[in-house]
Specification:
alpha/beta, Immunoglobulin-like, three-stranded mixed sheet, 4 helices, 8 strands
Length: 147
Amino acid sequence: MKRFLRRHPPLIALAVAIGLLALWSMLAPIKGGSHQLLLAFPRGVTIGGMTLPGEIRLTRGVQDVLLLRNSDRVPIVFGPLKIAPGRDVRLPFSEEGLYRYVCPPVVGKIVRVRVVAAPGPGWGRLAWRLDNLRQSVRYLPQRSPDD
């Protein structure tokens, strides 16, 4: 074992760094700069349709307001709301659960919003942070090289 430690100090340093990062992720408080998550409807979306993740996840107390922005030239229907062109609507969530909204411009015509409780310290918080990272990477906006 001592021979391994002497021969592979970078691996040991990497293992210690990963362990400290995991420990921080489990114990550090969850902070959010804004309680809002933006769902923007771009110009011309009513013609071609908009693809969204299967479910939008919000965390109560951290990010619990869905900001709907209509950049199109026609009104957008989102559940019981009709959002005028060029307008923003904030949809706050105070209760945990799964909410479904009819939204014709979206592929599939339904938007699912899941509101979850903020996790306490420990493995649940680590899983929550990893899931947020996974969702952020999976749904990064696609841009062409010309942008």
